[in-house]
Amino acid sequence: MARKGHSKKRGKGGKSRKRKRRDDSQPAPRQDEAKFQAKKPKLAPQEQDSSSDSGEEADPFTSLLSTFNATARTDNVVETDESEPSDSEVEVSEGDREVSVFDQDENLGEEDDEVNESEGDGGDENDSNDDAGDSNDKDEDDFDVFENQDEAVDDVLDNDPFVKHLLYDLDEDLLEVIQSPQPQYQIVQEIWPALESLKFYLPDVKKKTVVKKTKMSVVDNTIFAPHGNVPSRITYVDLAKLHVKSQLHSNVANANVENIGEEKEVLITPLQKEIFSIVNNYQDLFYPSRTLENGEEIRFIYTLHSVNHILKTRTKIVNHNIKVQNKDDVPDEYRDQGLVRPKVLILVPFKDSAYRIIKMIISLLHPKDKGHVINKARFIEEFTGGEIAMPFKNPRPEDYEKTFSGNADDNFKIGLAITRKSLKLYVDFYSADIIIASPLGLRVIIGAEGEANRDYDFLASIEVLIMDQTEIFLMQNWEHVLHIMNHIHLQPKESHNTDFARVRSWAINGWTRFYRQTLVFSSLMLPEINSLFNKKCHNFAGKARIEKFYAKGSVCQIVLQLSQVFHRFSAISGQTTIDARFEFFTKKILPQFTDSNTNSVLIYVPSYFDYVRIRNYFKREEISFVQICEYSKDGKIARARDHFFRSEAQFLLYSERAHFFRRFRIKGIRHLIFYQPPTIPHFYSEFCNFMADCNQSRKLACDSAKSVTVMYAKSDGLQLAAIVGTERAARMLSSDRDVHMFVSGD
After folding, report:
1. Rounded CA gap, 258 and 185, in Å?
2. Which residue in 702, 608, 701, 589 sits closest to 651, CA to CA?
3. Which residues fall within 8 angstroms of residue 733, CB to CB, at 6 or more apart?
4. Average pLDDT over residues 653-670
5. Neighbouring-strand partners of residue 625
6. Strands across the sheet with 196-203, in order?
7. Which of 72, 173, 331, 351 has its CA 20 to 30 A from that of 83?
8. How far is Cα 619 from Cα 599, in angstroms, rounded to an integer?
């Protein structure tokens, strides 16, 4: 049942089109400015002088509408014809989406999912987002199913954290705190059995306003969003009381066992309970203790949270569609949408990671999969295979094999749409509920300033952002992550079929970043990730950070008897550390190894920019060296390793990313210099153990001179703690001495 006033024709290149039904879980397109203004949302209360001329005030709603031209607002009309639409025409019809009411107990009638037989280039890494999906559907109109509004049951209760977090505007006191350049937080320390030590950072609002009288009426109260609080730790699992959608209840246990490989059936594990206690409270979380053993547990619990969030969103929208279909004005409580459709963004490093997530989504929604997953065959073909061949002779370490198991392609993106009866893969981003991508895959779409085909509007209404295996992003390109973060929640350039009468007032006000929940999972606590979590996450509900304590550090994994000397250098600030490190290296450290009798010196450099700087310096000074970095070709790598092993080159300049992606076993190291503590702590002990006699050239095997030198500054505190232990690192950073020596082994 279409609303009155909707245009039914579109002309494009003289091509005819098949009648398409609108997805009533999404807003219908508006045709004229008058109807936009008639349904203008009531914005959050602001203190204003009642005598002021309202016509002169800047209006966020009017400002937003003014950015969209008339063409963008009248794009959504289709021609009445029975012919099949072309691929390009289908992509334009972003409003033609499937109706979704998810409650198991609701009988909403039949729905047919048809897929266009001619698949486009959706998900191809080198294409723009216009080709990101090709799944097209023809659904029964849910409005025809309900005879009265009472049948549209909404099981998302008012005490659901989802409702409490997204339904209400922010009061002025809370808004003032979180908008501050340096927000003040109340810090609460907790000790939980699985997560161990964690800190909650809650916006420090002195005056807590939850209900405030408006100027309109003494009996009319505006309810504001509740302030953040420390969540209750889940001890007993009742999915209904945890506000998990009913249709997931019967699938959670089996899906969890299937994906995390527990020997006996378990609903959710102790670690999952505690993580879900935080994420279900819609607070940000930084968990730096991800391991190869608990990785699947973590992946499953955030996948469950993501699917649960989408199901609740779509349930609200569909039920509100029923209630407002005959109303001229939309009450505030029915404003349930953002400026665009995508609500969940999951960033992972490899295709295999995305494959595992989507498998979990399928096991939660359609475990028997009787044709309910659209484009599944294509998905399996593109996201499996392509595994890195692991050598049988001199096998790679276990952590390397597990990290790069499956498809290790790092350039991908895929949109998912959840309907009442199916899961659709490869949908256009503006028709997607969930987007799963690598940082590089999104970076290609977002583009750079000045590029003609760049697109980032689909990031405007992200409500849940998840980054998993985040430490690997630093090995790929951290700049891609920062670029994505800088383009989230920007004002869209086009309307994208948005029904502004249903847009939440806080979205129009530009406050979406304060409602976004960000979940960051990493195996390491690193400065770059810390900085992102501190500066880019502004959730009004607060944030939680797991405190990582290293009792011993990776230095305890060294099996050789080695003298290790740690040199501390001074830097005025973090910005001057790069130059101070280079100066200290060239003037203090390098001269100790340039003697003609000193050979087989490996210089380990974590940063590629530092690597290039040292390489250029060596060339200028005509120092004998070979080099291996992530961009080196196989032939040059083989020659460099051979020359270094035979002591035909005095120095080997070696980048950390080369070791991460290739994991060479370097032979012939007599002296080891760490230009900076390794990002990945076990690389430190791994290189020290490479210095064993069995890896030395025969003519030098009797030479007992071996040394390890490490340069560090205060800004390297987190990496240093992972190597020598938290307590020892603290003493080294605060000590009056700049040189510390350790001897490992017997």
Report:
1. 40
2. 589
3. 568, 714, 717, 720
4. 96
5. 651
6. 185-192, 196-203, 543-546, 284-287, 517-521, 464-467, 344-347, 434-437, 413-418, 423-425, 373-374
7. 72
8. 18
**Number of domains the chain contains:** 2
pLDDT score, position 309:
96
212 forms beta bridges with: 222
Q: Which residues pair with 189 in a beta bridge?
A: 199
Report pTM.
0.81
Instruction: Place 371 in a pLDDT band, splitting at 50, 70 and 90.
Output: confident
Residues 559 and 494 in one domain: no
Beta bridge partners of 603: 653, 673
Q: Cα–Cα distance between 21 and 78 in angstroms, integer?
A: 10
Confidence of residue 324 (pLDDT cuts 50, 70, 90): confident
Rounded CA separation 530/510 (Å):
25
State what percent of residues in the chain have pLDDT above 90: 59
DSSP symbols for 293-335: TTHHHHHHHHHHHHHHHHHHHHHHHHHHHHHHTT-SS--GGG-
**Please, what is the Cα angle at 566 between 561 and 568, to 5 degrees?**
175
Q: Which domain holds residue 256?
A: 131-544
Pick the closest to residue 719 from 448, 568, 526 (CA basis).
526
Same domain for 234 and 308, yes or no, is yes
Question: What is the chain's alpha carbon radius of gyration, rounded to the nearest angstrom?
Answer: 29
Q: Give the other-Cβ count within 10 Å of 641's Cβ.
A: 18
Beta strand extents in 395-502 (DSSP E only): 413-418, 423-425, 434-437, 464-467
Q: How big is the CA angle at 123 (ends 119 and 124), to the nearest 5 degrees?
A: 90
Mean pLDDT (the chain, rounded): 81
Is there a contact between 676 and 716 (Cβ–Cβ < 8 Å)? Answer: yes
Q: For residue 581, give the CATH number of its domain.
A: 3.40.50.300
pLDDT, tens digit, 9 for 90 and up, residues 228-249: 999 999 999 999 999 999 999 9
Q: Are residues 590 and 502 in the same domain?
A: no
712: tokens are: 């560090």
* CA separation for the pair 405, 356 (Å, rounded): 12
Q: Output b/e per residue, 580-589; b: 16+ Cβ within 10 A.
A: bbeebbeeeb
Domain boundary among 544, 570, 594: 544
Question: Phi/psi at 631 (nearest 5 deg)?
Answer: -100, 0
Ramachandran category for residue 27: left, alpha or beta (phi over 0 → left; psi -120 to 50 → alpha): beta
Do 605 and 526 share a structural domain? no
For residue 571, is it within any domain?
yes
Condensed to tens digits (0 to 9), the pLDDT of residues 33-58 reads 444 444 444 444 443 443 344 444 45
Q: What percent of the chain has pLDDT over 70?
A: 76
Same domain, 528 and 649: no
Per-residue pLDDT of 576-603, as tens digits, reads 899 999 999 999 999 999 887 788 999 9
- Residue that is last in its domain, among 544, 566, 601: 544
Residues 573 and 536 in one domain: no
Domain co-membership, 446 together with 576: no
Provide the pLDDT for residue 266.
72
Residue 502 and residue 600 in one domain: no
Classify residue 100: in a domain, yes or no.
Answer: no
Burial (CB count within 10 angstroms: exposed 0-12, middle 13-18, buried 19+), residue 186: middle
| CA separation for the pair 112, 406 (Å, rounded) | 34
**Do the domain assignments include residue 229?**
yes
Assess if residue 22 is contained within a domain.
no
Q: Please, are residues 506 and 512 in contact by the beta-carbon 8 Å criterion?
A: yes
- Using DSSP's 3-state secondary structure scheme, residue 270 falls into helix
